[in-house]
Amino acid sequence: MGFEKFLFYVFALITLWAAGMVITRRNPVHAVLFLVLAFVSSAALWVLIEAEFLGIVLVLVYVGAVMVLFLFVVMMLDVDLAALRAGFIRALPLGLLVAGVMAVEIFLIVGPANFGLEAFPPPDAAPADATNTRDLGILLYSIYIYPVEIAAVILLVAIVAAIRLTLRRRPDNKSVDPARQVRVKKGPDRIRLVKMAPEVEEPFGASPTTESGETS
Question: Which intervals of the chain are annotated as region Disordered (predicted)?
């Protein structure tokens, strides 16, 4: 077994272990951290198959932006851990059944019968000046242009739906209307100017005087 295959098995085991910890941890913050580890190890697998662009994008976009945002959101939410623990035990048999069915389906689809070396032989070695970024861009925007556009529309609809659900009006929510702020004019109903007489302060250390001028 070569060193490259050894690294593949190491990162594959780390990815599977981290993915299992994501769905079994009771603390949501710990689950998000294990998900970050799963993404990093998956990026290492992408690098091993000479897809450096996908590995770098996985680290920069998901680990560096999306997962950090998830971590802050989870930390700011008031999650009831007791309710989560009670629901986990109650839903464990059904979850194991669904996980087993999904594992069998994945094995039947991506198993050796469909994705073995007979169906997909090892590709030829790429030249030194080859760039997978250019090859990936040509594939995405030529052969797979329609799936890319459909995915973009779905993501746009998801963003609009998330904004609509978040910006619903609440009676206890204090918000500012920018249109009303722009229409504000200077007038007696908005601004009141008050002129006050200056106050004379006694010098420091001086004795206060009465109205007749005598010192107390």
Answer: 197-216
